[in-house]
């Protein structure tokens, strides 16, 4: 309790930019859905308060941030201390960043603490990056979770390296199963089936990874390898007779986290006004439900005035042993992702089309951000999943929505 | 994308050249090329760093602001540049690194976006595209190299009480990549510093935009305009850039202009 009080005090103190080094935002967001789903209301609201503190300590850098949230739906966890995001549900208070970077030499750094990783070259989908844990409580937000990690990185001439050790597994966070954000395909189970999700502790150990990068002329090249626990769970459904006390079946859902090893290459090249990026990754697991994968991506980016067009193709050459939807990060493959981002005098807008090439489902996403001032911003948009309900995006038809958000930054 | 902000400074320093040439008794009109060349050679600096504030006012009077820190090592086509945005909060931490590539007009450029936690190689930008919603476009941000223009002395004019040389500059190449047909440069006679530039687009007769440089200071022996205002004469909007904490020839750490440094969050 004392820890929570301390966190609350830290959160509320720098509500405005009291000193250089504090930044953050307060945001209210509203969702209007096209239909009721399993008793869920037509609307939902999220409120977020986020504060970040950055401090130089001689040549070192310290950064800490704290996020407080209030969600009307889906459910969050009670006010518990969950510093590694290992609980089933999104906590009202979290620590997205808490890290210290110490220079070991002019171009070599050691970073310790909780921070986000961003790997890979291709946008929209990157096999180097896709396995990293996401919080898909909001399935359309692509929110990456930070990790507790130690990172050693550096550069000599045109060569760079990153070695990362993640001692604690931060797992993917899923929406409540059976809700509009994680529906079960209609007809698969009797209507009204309830899920009892077990808050199993994920394995303690995480993974280790090494990434080497080089730049030569128009080319940026990279190779990587990683080994350890995969943050995305394998769901295990079971029917416990002891739980079948009512008129509808109750299915117990457990989670396990297989080990996986992977190697990959990444390439980026400037070709006139285009930037072409590509990645390939070979992933190996002895787990019979996960299996191996051979994932490739290719993307092209081109600027047109104040707009940018991005096209990405991604696919897996090996059919997974289970429905790919149950593997989360590989669920949509093969896929085509097309995005247009446009900067305007008054703000920005974007259109994104995610298209599953196997099942024909997809998502059309539009967003317009209007800058009222430099610190106040209104965003409106919509998410329109469509297509076959057996696809990971088509299944989300009940989550079709309009979104409006108001943000004040400092 | 940040290449943009470089231009004002580079223009200032490159063209802005200050030489007592203008104050010498001039019986015959000096040669425009000689003026530009002389001032450039005298005002090269090995390094430069500053903090900048940028204000965009559209025709309705709506104001937008941005802030950044800029570091440069080298000069003109050989320069390394690092820019880090500091304001507004939405772009804080965004970094831009530009490194020269021998034998190429296009430098290697990367952008670091804190939201993605990784750097991205970027392609040379559309020269006519607006720089982050300002009245500068990407061509305006490029370094002015008088050798790529046919220059001629047009006459003399007094601006804000300061006698100036008026020089026209027309892109040399036929079918040039430039979006401009002609530039009119106003150089202060006493210090040979650029104080105004009228930019005439291809197919136009009148200037589409006007850059005015003011608040000229002598910093560590180098003249620099601490205020630049670009006005879009057609749209009625204007963008003002003010420079603070300017310093020249300060040694820059070798690691500053590296991808490792670009991806350091909270770093320079």
TrEMBL record, chain A:
Keyword annotations for this protein?
Signal
Check the UniProt entry and state the signal peptide residues, or none.
Answer: 1-19
Top-level taxon of the source organism: Bacteria
Q: Which protein, by its recorded name, is this?
A: Uncharacterized protein
Q: Which organism is it from?
A: Geomonas paludis
UniProtKB/TrEMBL annotation, chain B:
Coiled coil ranges: none
* CDD domains in the record: LolA_like
Q: What Pfam families has UniProt attached to this entry?
A: LolA_like
Q: Which UniProt keywords apply?
A: Lipoprotein, Signal
The segment(s) forming the Uncharacterized protein TP-0789 domain are 77-264
- Which residues, if any, are the signal sequence? 1-28
Instruction: Fetch the Gene3D superfamilies from UniProt.
Output: Lipoprotein localisation LolA/LolB/LppX (2.50.20.10)
Query: What is the name of this protein?
Result: Outer membrane lipoprotein-sorting protein
Question: Native species of this protein?
Answer: Geomonas paludis
Q: What is the lineage of its organism?
A: Bacteria, Pseudomonadati, Thermodesulfobacteriota, Desulfuromonadia, Geobacterales
